[in-house]
Design brief:
By secondary structure, this protein is of the alpha+beta class. Helices cover 37% and strands 18% of the residues. The chain has a three-stranded mixed β-sheet with strand order 4-2-5. A two-stranded antiparallel ribbon has the order 1-3.
Length: 133
């Protein structure tokens, strides 16, 4: 598939990135308030388990680059965008909830280690729900 630079099968079989060493390194220096591996169920179905009942996560879906495989799936499904975010990780494989002051240095550290990292949202008062906007 031209827009993927490989076949759809090759793109879908790209191995999952393992985050354990990077996360352990971050944990030695910073307090991590929550972590979630984003698998089936997307951000809404995984990040919610890290939230206290009085907090929500507000996620900006434009804050990280969207991988071409997700556009391919959405356009050829066809699959509605809301369902894409409910079902797939949309390129976010792992999340860490940290203090706002720690976000930039953690992202810098992860990028130095070769992990694409982005500040994708914030935690606000709420009821334990993840809002992807």
């Amino acid at each position: 598939v031209k827009e993927l630079g490989m076949t759809a099968g090759e793109a879908l079989l790209t191995p999952t990135r393992i985050y354990v060493n990077a996360v352990l390194g971050v944990m030695k220096q910073y307090k991590i308030k929550g972590m979630a591996n984003i698998t089936g169920g997307g951000l809404e179905g995984n990040l919610n388990r890290t939230l206290p009942s009085n907090c929500d996560a507000v996620i900006d879906k434009t804050s990280w680059p969207r991988l071409p495989i997700f556009d391919f799936i959405q356009n050829n499904g066809p699959v509605e965008e809301d369902e894409m975010f409910r079902v797939f990780n949309m390129g976010v494989g792992y999340t860490m909830v940290v203090a706002a002051k720690d976000a930039a240095p953690i992202i810098k550290r992860l990028k130095r280690l070769g992990y694409p990292a982005h500040r994708i949202g914030e935690i606000v008062e709420g009821s334990g729900v993840v809002h992807v906007q």
